[in-house]
Amino acid sequence: MDNLKIEATKYTPKVSFNAETNVLELEGECYPENIAEFSKPLFSWLEDYLSHLGNQAVTVNVALSYFNSSTSKMLLDFFERLEAEVANNGKNISVNWIYDPENDSAEEYGEEFKEDLDSLSFNLVEKEE
Amino acid sequence: MQLENLYYLKTELDTQGILFSFSGPISQTLLLEMGDTLRNKMTLEKATPSITLKVFSMLVEQTQNIIHYSAEKRTPLHSKEAVSDGIIVVGYENGRYYVLCGNQVHNNKVNRITNELTQLQNMDKEALKDYYKEQRRKVPHADSQGAGLGFIEMARRSVTPIEFNFQKVDDKFYFFSLKTSV
Fold it and tell me: With an 8 Å Cβ cutoff, is A56 touching chain B?
């Protein structure tokens, strides 16, 4: 299947979902006026990808230096969709929440997602300079 | 407006510690520009990255609240971007940054907003965190174009409880104003 690549804009992150390497990345800032418009292609790609996915290890790297409250809802939906695949279909998926240590909110947001997820492996990773 | 009054208006804004203000049609494009300007200005003033990001975050939530919920919201035919009338102010007083936003709302929204904000005012940070996580799991409110989490996010990040006010405009509309501080 095709990879999903979307360039960053000033208010949406760079999206790089690679079906060959099984690395899914979001990087940048996310505060669009309409989050559904941004997230729709991501979720439809993800459904297609998960339906073809075997036992390979999948790595999801999320490096968002800022996101607004409606993006927070979208991220939870995204992580829960991955978690369902781990819990119900035994898939091997782990998420790296990459944060800048100078930004104390980013670590806290990551911890809060982690608290809300049970079977999905969710790691807080300090961004390297 | 008399030309001579512009200087008095500017002086008044400076005296109040206002970094910038905008009154009129508010859009996502304007938010981008205001956000960049605010971050540059705060960096020049040697605010820490953490404080700068918190003030920026308040600016985004409050501006998008105006964009989504102003009763004076219009979307031009040729554009996907909404333009909503309102006012946004960022200032500094007593060692803290503050963000004010204001827009008109229909009078039938006053009770719901009052109840929600009063409930948030009475919660401590731990209760706000639990409420935020609970609401994030729920399907957005029918009237909500974001995720309906904006007010809770503002209450969580504000170092003082959210202040808000309604002033009657006419039989149909009230002017809604809100203040947070970082």
Answer: no
List all residues 6 or more positions away from B12 whose beta carbon is below 8 Å from its beta carbon. none
Question: What is the DSSP-derived secondary structure letter of residue B25?
Answer: E
**What does the buried/exposed string (b/e) look like for A76-113 if buried means 16 or more CB atoms within 10 Å of the residue's CB?**
bebbbebbebbeeeebebebbbbbbeebebbeebbeeb
pLDDT average, residue stretch A5-20: 97
Torsion of CA B143, B158, B36, A70, to 10 degrees: -30
Residue B142 has pLDDT above 70, yes or no: no
**Do the Cβ atoms of B81 and A33 come within 8 Å?**
yes
**What is the ipTM for the molecules in this complex?**
0.93
Nearest CA in chain B to A12: B32
B18 contacts: CB under 8 Å, gap ≥ 6: B89, B90, B91
**Contact partners, residue A21, CB within 8 Å, separation at least 6:** none
Handedness of CA B30, B159, B120, A101 (dihedral sign): positive
The answer to whether the CB atoms of A35 and B146 lie below 8 A apart is yes
Query: In this structure, what token pair is assigned to residue B150?
Result: 């904006």
Which ranges of B70-176 would DSSP assign to H, the alpha helix?
110-121, 125-137, 150-157
Classified as helix, coil or strand, B33 is helix
Which pLDDT tens digit goes with each residue over B59-78?
A: 999 999 999 888 888 888 78
